[in-house]
Amino acid sequence: MKTSDFEELMLKLFGNWLLEFENEGEYGFTHKLEKEVNVIAYATNLTPETVEKAHTIGADLLITHHDAWDFVYGMKEVCLDRLRKHHISHYFTHYPLDFVEFGTSTALFERIHIDKITTLSTFKDNQEFPGIGVFHTPLSFIELKDRLERVMEEPIKAWENHDRPIQKVGILTGAGNQTSLIQYAKNHDCDAFITGERSLYSVQYAKFAGIHFYVGSHTFTEIFGVENLVVRIQEFFPNVKAIKIQEDHIESF
């Protein structure tokens, strides 16, 4: 697979989601080299550490969900220096991967073995909306917490806010800590809402609204979306080797 082949495949896989966020800094190459791509490394975050780990495994291309955002002051420049030094291309896809049909929320639903996704997470009218799924056999509060911790391999925070079994679940991975997202899940009769960040007000509102609230880390609620993307790349280019970079659980409670 050449870098140009990869670019063409991104257009095919993401389609209109790339047009939706065109020129908004939500996807693209941070560093681009036209070269043969034999090894892909993937992670949630672009950091100096993930670049070095990509170099250690001999990656030609590093794919992440997040860029090294400008508000993490100075980190992007260091990442760029190291990408150039090691001759590694880097591509990130943020909002497009959040909302494409195989993206981050869908991927977490898949990993917790939801039986049916009734509504995909999406973005419209400049607003994010969670995905919604249903368990045919309801889970208890603790059963869902245990399942999430096994999948993400980290402790999570969870608030038990009613005594019903859990059948309908809302998910928005990453920074889904807005009370409007929890309200959306509540208004769609969800018994639980899962995300990757919390605030005082999200915890307060979940309690007030009577909906279980589960919070993993931003990084590890979203890694499975990147994994889903890499699997699709390998379907088109089966000779490309893909290696997951293990990131530290720096957000764990």
From TrEMBL:
Keyword Metal-binding among UniProt keywords: yes
Record-listed a divalent metal cation binding positions: 65-66, 98, 218, 222
Keywords per UniProt: Metal-binding
GO molecular function, one term: metal ion binding
UniProt xrefs under InterPro entries: DUF34/NIF3, DUF34/NIF3_sf
Domain of life: Bacteria
Coiled coil segments of this chain: none
Gene Ontology CC: cytoplasm
Family, per entry: Belongs to the GTP cyclohydrolase I type 2/NIF3 family.
Stated name of the protein: GTP cyclohydrolase 1 type 2 homolog
Native source organism of the sequence: Fictibacillus phosphorivorans
Classification lineage: Bacteria, Bacillati, Bacillota, Bacilli, Bacillales
